[in-house]
């Protein structure tokens, strides 16, 4: 566990840094042969992650069905073992890096920003509450359940606590000891989070499918379908009759979206750490921008007010949708709820599309340089935005084909078609706006003529010709240094005009970012907490069938939900950098 067990690359890096001690900002060069092994070490860790992910995916998907001889406690056993191994590795990592002074030679300032780690802690808290509810729920059946069902949430709670602490203090690390072990450990951590995510998504989908099925059929038919179809999401031979048991059961299913987002956030942060293993950062080109988060400064509050209106309206639509669709069997109320849902989303998506187009136009006139430095965090953000959007693209295109090919067409079908088209457009325009914002350099403060600018900006209502009284002419007998710093009134006018235009552009970009941020929050909340018209609209179900369409939605919708939350984090970064 000490520093003496470094691999060849770490030893070479340490010797190079020692030899270049008089040039602390110059990154050491790595020979080509060592770079080849670096790629080999990465490939080995990737292969390990792929095999573990395929094994976990096979067990999780098989455990969702009754006919397959794989039980849910088999899945829990695999996930428990994986989490225990990750916990041991995290402890090893923290101890080994703390004992070795040369373990972390530099840090990536772009990795693990404070808002991303803050979001991770928020989701971790809700995940712990979910684990408490799970423990309380399964403890009600300890006499007729396998012990692994009670052990699993306990281990998961410990795993969430240790991993959150690990990512909070180590997200920016560029490790230079035990390189291959660290790569494999990080890939194992990433795979474990993805496996927990797959298990949560599957469990939630099975629970919602059974809830819909149980509402539409009698109790006898429902029990018969469970015998020939999917496994029940509750213990098969145990009855949950007490009030506290029902509270625990409903509580942990309502908290599943937070646990799902926690696993994906942790996976993204772990991937950036994996990319930074063995990385040397050139401090001459890797600038650290200390940006201040000023929510109520340099803003007109238009974006915040409109975003809050959309957010509050969306919450009202969500409540009415849940009451009229999930709690009522009348078809008229179901049609009203679908119409209300589609109209709200059409208005929201239309506004977001127009705002994104306006923001992209403003970027065309932005004078800031493009940031072309190597940034694994930004690369991952762009890849996740583009990849997660494919889930919603797939659902929208399936809906478009079903609506166009189906007859007859009613008002709900027309609203559904408009909703699907706007969903595609909004994702496209928003990705363009976010990617442009992430690749812009933060605004730079010009201190060259700071004293002149401070005096000049105070003359808001003064005639600009009066400024010439403070500027010495060419025949002045001032010192050469003072004369060199003197500027002409025309330069001051141009500086004022350019600065004013830049401030207007920045204010508009901040308003746009805040409006999109709040709108994406409500568009994440609605599907994550039950408003899923894909299961309530009969057009797609009748066209694709009761088996194909739910499978498409169950596979693609989690990516669409994750897209919204990741867009919120990216828009917050764009807001701060504007």
UniProtKB/TrEMBL annotation:
Predominant place of localization: membrane
Topology class, membrane: Multi-pass membrane protein
Keywords, alphabetical: Cell membrane, Hydrogen ion transport, Ion channel, Ion transport, Membrane, Transmembrane, Transmembrane helix, Transport
Pfam families in UniProt: Otopetrin (PF03189)
TM region(s), chain numbering: 43-63, 75-95, 115-138, 150-169, 181-200, 253-274, 295-321, 341-363, 383-405, 417-438, 508-529, 549-576
Location(s), subcellular: Cell membrane
InterPro entries reported in the protein's UniProt record: Otopetrin
Gene Ontology molecular-function annotations: proton channel activity
Family in the record: Belongs to the otopetrin family.
PANTHER family with a match to the protein in the record: PROTON CHANNEL OTOP, PROTON CHANNEL OTOP2
Descriptive protein name: OTOP2 protein
Organism: Corythaixoides concolor
Gene from which the chain derives: Otop2
